[in-house]
Amino acid sequence: MVATIERIGGLQTQYAPSGYIGLWSRMREFRRDSLTEALHQRRVIQGTLLRSTIHMVSARDYWLFLAAVRQPRQDWWRRVTRHQIGEVDMAAAVRALREQLANGPRRADDLRAILSDRGLPSLAFGGVALWLDMVRVPPSGTWEQRRADLYGLAEAWIQPAEHSESTALEHVIRRYLGAFGPASVREIADWAGIPHAKLVPVLATMSLRRFRDEKGKDLVDLPRAPLPDANTPAPVRFLPTWDATLLVHARRTQILPEQFRRLVFNTKTPHSVPRFLIDGAVAGTWREQGGRIELKPFEPIPKSVRREVDDEAQRLAAFFRP
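Above: the chain's sequence. Below: its structure in token form.
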């Protein structure tokens, strides 16, 4: 299971069950409690990482990902908040929370109150989370307790590891290509939340396969990565909200037909909605209701795959049961 999480570049988990469903869709005989156990055993770590969003990654990947995204996400936060709250003494805010967390994990509301008592604006908490390395501590952020609001110091939760930024950036590139390659530099950058200019010199030192897409755009991939034939059949799959396969970096893959994009991403659902794939492309949405999976196809489901869709929906319904 941990190897699968590494293979797909981590799991975006603003909504904790998304990670569980994401693994269920990609693994044979995945058990919900196996991921919860891995979080408790600290083999899987949940923290603010790629694109400054909550991700579950392996313990090995955590410090590498953090070293790659730390500076870009701090720069991003300063840029988007400078007109709202001006300059905040982040060093003082970090010290205040570190002192509290040194005694053990604390709830997010408690940490926000500590900053408020020191005269810091409410937005400062989001910034501190980009300067102070914190993880979400189970049982929060699991299938059983879905709100990931219990924070602990990363250095107290898992053994710290130091990595240079260049080493970390190369690792992130390899993780992305292992999950989504071939890809352009900008696609890798969009997925990681790192300016593409930071990746260009690192990519130049790496031994990679190079391609051009239909429009002549440069693409790269890992040297021995599989490149299936375009006609390779893709099984029916059910994916959760937040699954990274639909983010903007993957737009070129055509996994989400453009005529359906507004049905998946819009002002009411900027996070996307749970959806199912037929032959590798989004064909509709789903939701669990009363022990059943209700389907909302965007077009009539072809008779040739209707049985496969129904069978997969029944498997997913069983996964939701206690």
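The CA atoms of residues 234 and 279 lie 5 Å apart.
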